[in-house]
């Protein structure tokens, strides 16, 4: 049922992808903002309380409904699984940004490419050249595919899969929402959300990196992972980006004076320790975006194949 749930959810999303501003996500954002306003008194333990309120308020009802559906009918449980996977997966949620950047770069319209990337990452990209924009789009797409697809896959395979998938997505959302906005960067409130998401994402990030290596250039991906992942301040981003960049032969990460764009947080890269010239790969180009798309799709097929084999083994 797990494999079929993911398969049906992916098919539905291909036909009707959820937009970033869909009503479900909008309500979740409002709820998280209210909890932050209620709990934020400037201390780290207040953030811990807020995290448990938000995540528990969404995870526990999801688990309860799943249990009731199992008692009612396997088909009801299957339908609930599909709904939750559809809401938590985001394989095409940000694809319009990526596609717009790819089209603009292919047409040589640098201004449009900068504008689309800026809208995607909520940063000023007006000083970037085409290599910077291409690299930023590749980095963002690799991180988005992990956090919106492969990380969800891993937690959906756990017991009470729908609740675990919701827990993962909410943990990832709160780690950003309570840390990245300018007014939250210097506060202690988001420390717990960042720390607990690190442990929640510890295994999925490594599995994503392994998948990138298997379906891409294995030797360069593993070499970059072993030698360059530690140069990012954010270890998980470093693992995914170093392995992903090595897999497609593109150097990711760039000194600050060239407007680094690293996933959702430019500060995640340790600028002083980067030695890009020694890394395998070439500078990002518009063709690198197509390579990133192929890498993500092949990784998705690998995950689905392994899941199908696991489901078949359990059924036997």
Describe it for me?
The protein is an all-alpha fold and 316 residues long. The chain has one domain (2-315). The protein has helices at residues 2-15, 23-39, 44-72, 74-88, 95-106, 110-121, 130-156, 161-177, 191-200, 202-215, 218-228, 235-248, 286-315. Helix 5 (95-106) runs antiparallel to helix 6 (110-121) and helix 11 (218-228) runs antiparallel to helix 12.
Summarize the structure.
Its main location: membrane. By secondary structure, the protein is mainly α. The protein has 13 helices and no strands.
Mean pLDDT: 85
Order of helices and strands: HHHHHHHHHHHHH
3D shape: globular
Report the total helices.
Answer: 13
Structural class: mainly alpha
Largest sheet: none
The domain tally reads 1
Question: Which helices and strands occur, and which strands form pairs?
Answer:
Elements: H1 2-15, H2 23-39, H3 44-72, H4 74-88, H5 95-106, H6 110-121, H7 130-156, H8 161-177, H9 191-200, H10 202-215, H11 218-228, H12 235-248, H13 286-315
Helix pairs in contact: 1-4, 2-3, 3-4, 3-8, 4-8, 5-6, 5-7, 5-13, 6-7, 7-8, 7-10, 7-12, 7-13, 8-9, 10-11, 10-12, 10-13, 11-12
Organism: Undibacterium nitidum
Transmembrane segments: 64-89, 149-168, 196-215, 295-315
InterPro entries: Cobalamin_biosynth_CobD/CbiB
Features:
single chain; 316 residues; mainly alpha
